[in-house]
Amino acid sequence: MTDLRHSLAWGRGLLNWQSGSFTEVPDDFLLGELSRHAAGKRTSSLHGRLAALLVLALTSPVLLAAVLGKPRGQPLLIRHRAVRAPVLTTLMVETCGYCELNGVPGLWRRWPELWNIVTGRWAWVGNRPLTPEQATELDTEFERLWLAVPPGLFSLADAEGCLDNRSEETRAHASFYSVQHNLRADLQIVARMLRRITSGQPSTP
Amino acid sequence: MHLSSEGDLLRVQVPLELNASNASPFRDFVRGALRDEHQRVDLDFSRTTFLDSSGLGALVALHKALAARRGSIRILAARPEVRRVLELTHMHRLFDMAADAATSTA
Fold this sequence. Notes:
Strand content of chain B: 25-35%
Number of strands of chain A: 7
Low-confidence stretches of chain A: 31-40
Order of helices and strands of chain A: EEEHHEEHEHHEHHH
Oligomer: heterodimer
Largest interface: A-B, 19 and 18 residues
Mean pLDDT of chain B: 90
Helix content of chain B: 25-40%
Strand content of chain A: 15-25%
Number of helices of chain A: 8
Number of strands of chain B: 7
Mean pLDDT of chain A: 80
Order of helices and strands of chain B: EEEHEEHEHE
Low-confidence stretches of chain B: none
Strand order of the largest sheet of chain B: 1-2-4-6-7
Shape of chain B: globular
Distance between the termini of chain B: 22 Å
Number of helices of chain B: 3
């Protein structure tokens, strides 16, 4: 990451208002339109959000389990920062926060993310959130499709058992999902993830 | 899967479907067949009718393997249904695309 001061994004470059210099940034990925918010394109419907609220309420004992199960001295919620789609610039990344629940196993650690669905910022199914550092590792236009859909509680890569955000396979699933998703595929992914949760298969947050 | 080698060229016949069930073995098979002299890989898609996200992952992995040795990879005779997936995901910009499988030896 580069530290940038006294500058603003202007046209296809960065203007330093103090020195008057202008640096052209030819890569659209690095200097996307600030007004574009793909994350706002498609999150959950009202029904989806209400369902998330219902699930959040029904599974609230998870919170108690986390309080009892978390290692002493560690926080209950671990905060993370994720890039909102699309990446605006590595110099001025727009991010959103989300939390992971400490003290519970596997996918239950994602429990607080249900609230993000309730508030309409996330979808039930999307691509998993990326940290700004992970986002800058997306090398190609193909890989950057990861950020073309909003973050989701579950992802196609999850359903396929790919847990490493940095693997080529996970990136391929994410890119494919971004251009090929539909309601049927989303329902299949949710069903597979529910089976995974009930069978206690491992997962990273 | 059928392989043939000619000088620095490795030509691979891609199976009828490249999906979750065979993408990883396919990737490993091609990687294992790469020898030091191979700088070009031609993937013959003329028989392939289905390509999913796992298949795309295998293609990306092979692309990176070839890029690491400063080689190139080419997709030959992709059918419309396969080409559509490659175009939607912008992967057609990663690879050289040739319409005809016969051009691989050119």
